[in-house]
Amino acid sequence: QQQVKQSPQSLIVQKGGISIINCAYENTAFDYFPWYQQFPGKGPALLIAIRPDVSEKKEGRFTISFNKSAKQFSLHIMDSQPGDSATYFCAASRGTGNTPLVFGKGTRLSVIA
Amino acid sequence: DADVTQTPRNRITKTGKRIMLECSQTKGHDRMYWYRQDPGLGLQLIYYSFDVKDINKGEISDGYSVSRQAQAKFSLSLESAIPNQTALYFCATSGASRGNEQFFGPGTRLTVL
Q1: Most buried pick, A28, A65, A75, B82, via CB within 10 A?
Q2: Tens digits of residue pLDDT in A59-107
Q3: The 3-state secondary structure of B28-88, one letter per residue
Q4: Is the CB of residue A110 less than 8 Å from the CB of residue A13?
Q5: A32/A71 Cα distance (integer angstroms)
Q6: Please, what sign has the CA dihedral across residues A52, A54, A55, A59?
Q7: B interface mutation test: which of A2, A33, A46 has the most B CBs within 10 A?
Q8: With an 8 Å Cβ cutoff, are A89 and B43 in contact?
């Protein structure tokens, strides 16, 4: 049973464009939704996270949109740059860190000039 | 200095051999995790530990065992390695005071021939 479904598996975006990655979850007890960014040869690193008491969180060019009723959340990367080329993972967990994160399968983003 | 270190970084071994992957952290976190990453499958949780006396199975624990030797050290063992355990392995840590943000090590690339 896949608790967090992520799409698309891969994405190619022109420089300056908007990259959008979507995730859907099943467990309504989830209350923490982070996005991790992984560059080749490196471990994943936290990019941005949201809790369900807000519908959107923005940090620079990165925005999480959260739809609690649809059980979906998405990552938007505005003005995408070649340096954003990486693999992105969504994740979810419940409680304040008392359960492990459940990760999506990842999206490989390529930003081309 | 890296906060989460993994040794070895690369390892090639043969079917049937016992392998140990080691993880150390200087972040003072009480929670530690082992993940396996395969292309297209994302990050799959193998084992996790919330303190020295706590060990929990993840979604793919079969064929693996762990040891939490100290708060800062968490080792993963493959008792009898098989080719389908060829993968990238990541250790991660998190602290109760930081919610559920996980900090990943640089990974160990394991090849089982």
Answers
A1: A75
A2: 999 999 999 999 999 999 999 999 999 999 999 998 666 788 999 999 9
A3: CCCEEEEEEEECCCEEEEEEEEEECCEEEECCCCCCEEEEEEECCEEEEEECCCCHHHCEE
A4: yes
A5: 12
A6: negative
A7: A46
A8: yes
Inform me whether the C-beta atom of residue B64 falls under 8 Å from chain A C-beta atoms: no
Residues belonging to chain B? 113
Q: Pull the structure tokens for residue B39.
A: 């292309």
Can you give the C-alpha Rg of chain A in angstroms? 13
Residue B23 confidence (pLDDT) above 80: yes
Ranges B40-54, B81-95, B96-110: which has the least confidence: B96-110
- Nearest C-alpha in B relative to A93: B100
